[in-house]
Amino acid sequence: MGPWRCLLLLPLLAAALRAQQQQFMEYVERRLTLLEERISQWHDQSSRYSTELRDFKNQVLGMLEAAEKEREAMRSEAESAAVRMDRLEREVDYLETQNPAPPCVEVDETLMEKQVATAKQRKNEKYTKLTDCSHTIASIRAMKILKRFGSTSGLWTKDAAGNSEKIYVFDGTANDTVYVFPRMREFTLFSATRKAARIKLPYPWVGTGHLVYDGHLYYIRQQGPFQVIKFNLANKTVVDSSVFPAEEQIPVFGLSPFTYIEVAADEEGLWAIYATKEDEKNICLAKLDPTSLDIEQMWDTPCPRENAEGAFVVCGALHVVYNTRLPSRSRVQCVFDVSGTLAPEDASLVYFPKRYGSHSSMKYSPRERQIYAWDDGYQIIYRMEMKKKLEV
User: Fold this and answer.
1) N or C: at which end does the chain have fewer Cβ atoms within 10 angstroms?
2) Are 170 and 189 in contact (CB under 8 A)?
3) Long-range contacts of range 121-126, CB-CB < 8 Å, 24 or more positions apart?
4) Alpha-carbon distances of 43 from 30, 32, 47, 53, 54, rounded to whole Å
5) Could you state, in order of their start, the residue ranges of all structural domains in the chain?
6) Keywords on this record (predicted)?
7) Which residue from 118, 115, 132, 113 is spatially nearest to 316, judged by alpha carbons?
């Protein structure tokens, strides 16, 4: 091919190259245009999503504010209801106090005849007070819940006569091991019994009518006849025992069927609270000699067994605790003074504060003038407000 022909082909090649470049530029422009459209769509969608998210956030914040307002309103209503409930309980207490059941401080003629006959048999025409105790319970000054320990039924107490700070715990209504804590602090702070000494009794006990008095434990033997055991806590030996001379005994408290004899202590000494088939409707009381366990004198009281859950003696006056109409409430509803020095209008029908269940034991401490109670597994102290008796 000659030179003149190459010169003829050069313009054709240049035109073809320009056409390809033009097509490539048009392709790139189209792609860029599509990319810009997609970026614009993404931007629009992102803006829309951001707006929707902001609106949803504002909606949620509004709902949270409304929920918080409703929660505050409900809390305010609950507090108001609690205040009204407390006011209602105080009003009910006031009404029941103003309209109490008649105190059982006087004995009717038939019971008096029985008492006279019993007194003649015991060669005691009249009960002679051993002390100048002239006080009676006015009200519950304070209630303190110590802890929850052991079974629903049991007993805890101090020595009613000595100065020891030891705490004695009887877990359950049928056992043979007593837990002894050195002080109240160890009993309160530790949930386990690792800080307590253990005393294994020669015979298992029954009920919750035990008593620690002047270094000795008085308890009711579980098997056989109803035998009061006097156990020396220092040398761990049985000092004495006595079969209670009441035939066909029945539970002394209608709401505590596991207790047949309640051994109690007050400023006058030792007492036994019991019931018999002969007079199964009412509770009986006996004065015990702490040394020999002999019965010095016996009384048939007018205090009924029905709905009774516990009892204690203060200054020679038996106080029986009953349930009331309201759940988990109880009060002293019957008072029987063996010396006859307590005027009827002076017998306070004491209310116990709202509790967990029912008292399985109530032990009065004459030295501290407070009651150690066991309530559905909780150990409670009731501090008593005392007043002078208005003697008849």
Assistant:
1) N
2) no
3) 122/295, 122/296, 122/297, 122/298, 124/296, 124/297
4) 20, 16, 6, 15, 16
5) 131-388
6) Coiled coil, Developmental protein, Disulfide bond, Glycoprotein, Secreted, Signal
7) 132
How far is the C-alpha of 18 from the C-alpha of 138, rounded, in Å? 120
Supply the pTM of this predicted model: 0.69
Determine contact, residues 258/251, Cβ cutoff 8 Å: yes
Say yes or no to pLDDT of 103 above 80. Answer: no
For the chain, the residue count is 392
CATH 1.10.150.530 applies to domain 131-388: no
> What six digits make up the tokens of 6?
């190459």
Q: Which residues pair with 181 in a beta bridge?
A: 167
Residue pLDDT, tens place only, 310-353: 999 999 999 999 986 665 678 898 999 888 777 666 777 788 88
pLDDT in tens, 344-365: 667 777 888 866 778 999 999 9
- 329, amino acid identity: R
pLDDT, mean of residues 176-181: 94
Per-residue model confidence as pLDDT tens digits over 167-176: 999 999 999 9
What tokens appear for 226 in the block?
A: 């109803």
CB 335 within 8 A of CB 328: no
Residue 282 burial by CB count (10 A; 0-12/13-18/19+): exposed, middle or buried? buried
Q: How far apart are CA 112 and CA 195, in angstroms?
A: 51
Burial label for 68, CB within 10 Å (0-12, 13-18, 19+), is exposed
303, 334 contact by CB (below 8 A): yes
What is the rounded end-to-end Cα distance, in angstroms, of the chain? 159
* Residues 133 and 317: beta-carbon distance below 8 Å: no
- Cα 58 to the chain's mean position, in Å? 49
Strand segments (E) across the chain: 135-148, 154-157, 167-171, 177-181, 197-200, 211-213, 216-220, 227-232, 237-243, 261-266, 269-274, 282-288, 295-304, 308-314, 317-323, 330-337, 351-352, 359-365, 370-375, 378-388
